[in-house]
Amino acid sequence: MEIAIRPKLDRADVEAIVVQHLPGPVEFVGHQEFKDGFFNAAHALELADGRHVVVKVAPEKGLKLLRYEVDLMATEIECFERGLAAGVPMPKLHYGDPEGGVMIIDRLKGVTLPNARPDMSHADLLAVRREIGVLSARFATVTGERFGYPRKSGRTVADTWSESFLAMIDDVLADIAENGSPLPRPAEEIAALITAERDLLDEVTRPALVHFDLWDGNVFVERGESGWRVEAFIDGERALYGDPIAEIVSLSFGSDEETAAAVDGFLGRQMTAGEERRLALYRIYLMLILVAECDVRGFDEEQTAHQLEWSTESLVKNLALLEG
Predict the structure, then answer these.
(1) Where do the domains of the chain lie, and which CATH numbers do they carry?
(2) pTM for this one?
């Protein structure tokens, strides 16, 4: 799918990046462009010495982006550096340039979870779901200096989680208003419902690292002699410092049984009533992002209609939970 903001690079462009930033001599014997991402350009290169790397390049500066998307490559590089240091399985980071918007990482050997599902038994799938929960919990062991997105501007950075999260909500609602994106409720009502939860948000006192985008397409798995296992997580550009419970938003996109396995791995217990309520807030935030990005990505009509329908349905459900 062609995405309006994704950089258009050819093989020569990405080979030049690798020659400049990887120790040489470097000789290339293969190339593949990944076209399923919605933001960065991503190209795989096979080197004659056996190395396989992926080059990611951020959209050009000055393009129309959502407010939270500024400095996303810097965010992803920080997520990789700190996640790897905490033992999170992620591709090795060979080079990262936050200012230039470039990173080079190892290419993984496995496949994404959606591609593996047809070959997995139900028991395999539940075991992998639980392992995803266990491994993703390592992100939350990393503590940030303050809450919010790790951006140069400091926008959304705050000493309390409520102040930071409410700034995130303000930003995405401003994006939606600016682009005229459709909402199931007036933006003022949505903001008021979330603001009313300020005290609940401030039960979170430690700014933990949250990947916040661990949907199945960002989880690579591989099959070994003892069965399927998680190989690594990718795409940390939505990472932030906040409530670890926010990680469960994308961990719970599967069936109820799969969600229970992931949450058990992540927490090792049932969520409290307060955590369930905070989770509804974070689902609302992600769905607002999905609504807003339809107007800046350049999706085709079918993708836009599907994403708006799905995100709006979730918004209606979770706003009702807050009122209930």
Answers:
(1) 11-106 (3.30.200.20), 111-323 (3.90.1200.10)
(2) 0.94
